[in-house]
Amino acid sequence: MTVNSNALDRADELDEELKDGKLAGPLHGIPTILKDNQNTKDMPTTGGAVTLEESMAPEDAFVVKQMRDAGAIILAKANLHELAGGGTSVSSLGGQARNPYDLDRTPGGSSGGTGAALATNMAPIGFGTDTVSSVRSPASACNLVGLRPSIGLVSREGTILVALTQDMVGPITQSVTDAARMLDVIAGYDPEDPSTAKGVEHIPDSYMDYLNPNGLDGARIGILRTVFSSGPESEPVVKVAEEAVADLKALGAKMIEVDAEIDVDELIDSFHVGSFEQQEQFNEYLDSLGSGAPIETFEDFVEAGEYHESLESGLQAALEIESPTDKPEYFERLYRRAQFVERLYDIMAADELDVFFFPHQKQLVAEIGDDQLGRNGFLSSGTGFSSITVPGGFSEGGVPVGMEFLCRPFDEPTLFEVAYAYEQGTQHRQPPEEFGPLME
């Protein structure tokens, strides 16, 4: 969407510091891609929307500042599904992002621009935001790693949000190691996001300490087999997932068949709160821009009518709800959410599980023009449990398939142990044939 015009100057400064033996931080000189719903003081933050094309935030988002302080170079801001409002990464301002492994398919969404950029080696690390599965969907579709941290571990301040109850900011990377490196930098307390107060006591000295190649040895992993398939269209994914189960066993994990019927689509219908919270969240974001806001309200955005057609039904539904607290259905959804969270805790306790395992999506990433179906990622975003998606292999047609591990909130150390061991034991990460290294 936007390339940082100051990136080369900053790189030169960091090179000079390095010559003098100085490091700006643990990410010194590392090019980083942002999703274009994260505030930057030196580039527009558009959300992929024509209406916000020239919108400038007064300061960096909290995590962006943390990255710069750690020495990272903010190289560019990537396309997304407009306002993070869908799963296929198309926007009125940026058009359709494409999957570098199959240009007729989407790169997942809503953070698909970041996924495509990292898969094609434009940068090694980047960010997504996740309301349903939007950090992990591009990771699955683009043969990458996507981490959705526990709510309270990473600040959401300075981000165009859909639903504060569900939204998280998280790393998208080419390796589990780099996801741990990024989490070390961005985890922490931010008074502008009060949820982060509860995460402080759970942050270890370094998540890098949990990158154990033998991390699957004796790990108890629950197979959520009822979310593997949605019919014949799931066969390419199920084949890869069953191979992953065999690999996990071979790497020392104790695989437990979870006796629970779970329908993720029903869960989304039951307690997804995006439509209830979006208007209020968007208005708060516009207020934070002060005099730099190009419009004043969510209603102004909808009435401008410049958004991509895929947002129509969602925006109209959200427009009817000025405040979620005025709607009894909102509280019913939160109650049903809490009930399901207790159910997951109970399953993990009864079977003495360390993590759950399942394919991130029931179907291959959607072809351009189709909706993305079979979104298992809601098991994390709908509950607040932490999860990570890692490369699990490819369909016979060469389309990446991501595998997901889900754990209790703030148990990221366990998540990194099992994900790293699986990654190192399988080595499924491969660049797309048409987009290899930028330099030989």
UniProtKB/TrEMBL annotation:
Cross-referenced SUPFAM superfamilies: Amidase signature (AS) enzymes (SSF75304)
Domain Amidase: start-end pairs: 3-415
Source organism superkingdom: Archaea
Region (Disordered): 20-42, 91-117
Name listed for the protein in its UniProt record: Amidase family protein
Gene3D superfamilies associated with the record: Amidase signature (AS) domain
